[in-house]
Amino acid sequence: MSHDHDHHHDNELDPMAARVRALETILTEKGLVDPEAIGVIVETYETKIGPRNGAKVVAKAWVDPEFNAWLRRDATSAIASLSYTGRQGEHMQAVFNTPDTHNLVVCTLCSCYPWSVLGLPPVWYKSPPYRSRAVIDPRGVLAEFDLVLPDTTSIRVWDSTAELRYLIIPLRPEGTEGWSEEQLAALVTRDSMIGTGLACAPEAA
Amino acid sequence: MSLRDLIAHSQGLGEGIDAPVFAEPWQAEAFAMVLALHNQGLFDWDEWAQALSTELKRPGALDDGSDYYHHWVAALESLVAAKKVTSSADIDDLAASWQRAAHATPHGQPIRLENDPERF
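Structure tokens for the assembled complex are given below, as produced in the milestone run.
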């Protein structure tokens, strides 16, 4: 093996990184994307957007009847009032769990997800088994999450679309009377806002 | 991989409320480009969902979803090709150029396309 260079070739781009870089180069040259704007979006999603946003929406809905009513009527505006505006401009619908009905969200088509309030979806949400089974066998799917609901609770499945995305408002845990929004938000898990979990009980938080 | 395995995997990764969202930087860039192009009005979300769904349905898609962003990039390529912005062949060429540029760049220096020895 001949060594005709005196420096180490340890800068390598894997094929996917190179493809994405090529796309970015072309789209930048065409004036369709601005690398700085791309950087801002990446940073925002990595650091500022995530399920904590959704948890604040849920906690506010639990303590503030006016916000609760607004969220039921027009979730897109109610959520935007907290500055969690989706860059993608999709419509949001809040779905409220009740003691009789538990709600579950899926995107059977691809992986539509309420990014502005939950960040990016977990691996299982994007996986074929979840996408295909959630509608056919929601009770079986919930059991995989160790969530077993009473037979008297019906389960309603909401299939997201590109235009309409759902945020589940879980039931407020018992024993949290008088808690602040901040305390309550800490009980709200990501899964409870997708419907594959419940909000934590106060002692577990 | 079963759904239960995937859930356990997510929990193992600490995919909780503060979970890291992208496994590699290119995934973040690909994600952001789709948002940026939508903001530009190149496509609407319905078109995007259709394009992504088409890729996810191709035979060979992995059950554990670990190839999700590969499909994401493929969907992005097919949409920009459909919109006549560029072609897969152009992307192939430029991606190869970026790889040669990276290879020719000494460690510690920024990788620039001009570093591709075959580029003129």
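The two ends of chain A are 61 Å apart (CA to CA). Residues 1-9 of chain A have pLDDT under 50 and may be disordered. Further analysis is deferred to the final report.
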